Amino acid sequence: MSHNILDLIGNTPLVESRVLNQNPNVTLYFKLEGHNPGGSVKDRPALNMIRAGLERGDFDTNSKLIEATSGNTGIALAMIAGIYGLDMELVMPENSTKERVQTMRAYGAKVTLTPSDIGIEGARDYAESKVNNDGYIMLNQFANNDNWQAHYKSTGPEIWKDTEGEITHFVSAMGTTGTIMGTSTYLKEVNPNIQIVGVQPEDGSRIPGIRRWPEEYLPKIFNPSKVDKILDVNETDANEMAVKMAREEGIFCGVSSGGAATAALRLAKTLDSGVIVSIVCDKGDRYLSSNLFG
C-alpha cells in the first residue's frame, strides 16, 4: 500500500505488442508511462529535480520557480510543486492543447503562454529572461542532471528487471533527452551490447514532445555517445501510429509515443531476433481537443 501519491511514481507496466509487431522472432514491449500519477514519464524527472533541489538548498517555499515545457513536464512539476508548497510558473507555446494548460492550472501552477510561431525555443527564452531579470529560479530540465539521473535510478532498472535481462534494444523519443540518457547509462552498465535507439522528427515535421533541436538549443544533458542509432519519423506516421496503438493494441497514447512506436516497429522488421522496449510516454487524453483521434 502506498501512503503518498509520490510513492506511485515509477514501476509502470510493460506490455507486449500482440498485433502491430509482425516479426515472430522479435518481442516488442511497450512501457506504459501514462500510468504514473501525473500521467506521463515526466513524473520521474520532475520528482527528482524538485527533491534534489530542495535537499541541496537550491530553492525553498519562498522561491519563485519557472520552467519552459511542451506539456508533460509542466503537468508533473505542477502536481509535485503543489505537494511541496512551491510557487511554480510554467511557460509553454500557445498552441499547446488546452488539456495540458487546464491540468497545470488545476494543480495550482501559473501558466504563461508564448507565441506559437517561436515554439518551445521561445518559451525557453522567456523563462531565461525571468531568471535573469526578475529573480526566478529555473529547474532547467534541459541542463539539469537530476533529469536523466531519475531514469538511471528507476526506468533503466525497471526495464532490466521486467525483461529478466533479455532486452536487446531500447527505443525512446528524444525531447529533453533525459529518458534516453538515463536509461541508456543504466542499461549500458549492465549490458554494453544493448542498442539504444533515439527517435526524432524528420526535417520539417512537428511532433509534440519530440524535437530536432537547433544546435544552440540542444539539451546540455545530451551525450550522443550514449545513443547507438537515431531514426527519423514524420508527423503523419506518428499521428497514424498513435491511432493504431489505440484501436489495435488498446494503448491510448499521444503523438510522441506514436513516433517511438513507429521507429520500434520499423526496427523489429529488420531484426533476426531480439527484445525491444519502446517508451509510451503518456496517454492520449491530452490530445482529445486536437484532431488526432478524429
CATH third-tier fold name of the largest domain: Rossmann fold
**CA(first)-CA(last) distance:** 39 Å
Give me the strand/helix succession. EEHEHEHEHEHHEHEEHHE
Instruction: Indicate the CATH class of the largest domain.
Output: Alpha Beta
The radius of gyration is 18 Å
Averaged pLDDT: 95
**Which segments are poorly predicted (pLDDT under 50) over 5 or more consecutive residues?**
none
Strand arrangement within the widest β-sheet reads 1-2-10-7-8-9
Q: Compute the number of strand runs.
A: 10
| Total tally of structural domains | 2
Sheet with most strands: 6 strands, mixed
Shape: globular
Q: Which architecture name of the largest domain does CATH use?
A: 3-Layer(aba) Sandwich
GO molecular function: cysteine synthase activity
Family: Belongs to the cysteine synthase/cystathionine beta-synthase family.
Keywords: Amino-acid biosynthesis, Cysteine biosynthesis, Pyridoxal phosphate, Transferase
Modified residues (N6-(pyridoxal phosphate)lysine): 42
